[in-house]
Description:
By secondary structure, this protein is of the alpha+beta class. The chain is built from eight helices and eleven strands. The longest helix is centred in the middle third of the chain and has 28 residues, at 173-200.
Amino acid sequence: MKAFAFLRLHRAAALAALLLAxxxxxxxxxxxxxxxxxxxxxxxYPNTQYLSATGSAGDAERASERxxxxxxxxxxxxxxxxxxxxxxxxxxxxxxxxxxSTSQRLQRQIxxxxxxxxxxxxxxxxxxxxxxxTHYALAVLNRRQAxxxxxxxxxxxxxxxxxxxDKLAGATPVExxxxxxxxxxxxxxxxxxxxxxxxxxxxxxxxxxxxSHAELQDRLQQALxxxxxxxxxxxxxxxxxxxxxSGAMGKAGMPANNRNxxxxxxxxxxxxxxxxxxxxxxxxxNLSLQLSDATGKVLGARNWPLKVSSVEQAxxxxxxxxxxxxxxxxxxxxxxLGFASGKK
Length: 344
């Protein structure tokens, strides 16, 4: 959870910088009377031309920060809604520490995208309610400016995608998987920004995509099959590990090839002695996968801590195998994609 705390600090720093930039661009209007933007659409900043949000606090600076944060949240929610549908969120707990690697990466990307979109946002109005000792602030962002920011970021993602695809010729099988995986990820980020742009753009058009997700996904699947991965089981304390891994590989579209292989996927399942506690039997273990090339160079490794329980000791190993099967079917493909991308 420390990563999320860092991200919150990053967000506060970014908004403070935007606030300062906005104040430099133009000083906010300090209203003597209650402004219309507390009730609805600001008359000076109509919804057809501007995006706006308000914030309140005990002092003017915090009210301004909250207004900018609320403006940013408009984009964060839309980007998150588009992004989470194509992101696999994974949670693991080991030695009492929980890691949510994919969701943390997604959160960082959402905040990076949002920061770029709201560049040019500013505090346009402030008002102090003396009866409630509360400061109010109005943050605005020109729709054209936001659209330009989005188009610039979409064009960068397209350029990065083209770079990845141009490098496919002559690449090794694992490099092809890495580049196609990166290209697909870039276009998924693009899709989230495109949906936001179509909302901001009054014409509702945005920038048409040059590559389809389906095409990139098909090419990635073909590249995965072309890796020619052999399966090796190093340790199997619960039984049937080879069948479970092989089945998961087949479901992921990369069946084990132990004859003409270029890479080796080594699987291990280690369990500790079973123990009894308060009428229940417990079995702890660890599942590990390691991908190496034909020369033995390790490309990546992944571990999953395991724990099962039962009132009958004889059911521990079957339950362990069932848990391993679920993990492999859900996460083996993403693990191999991570190995190919150099995420060990």
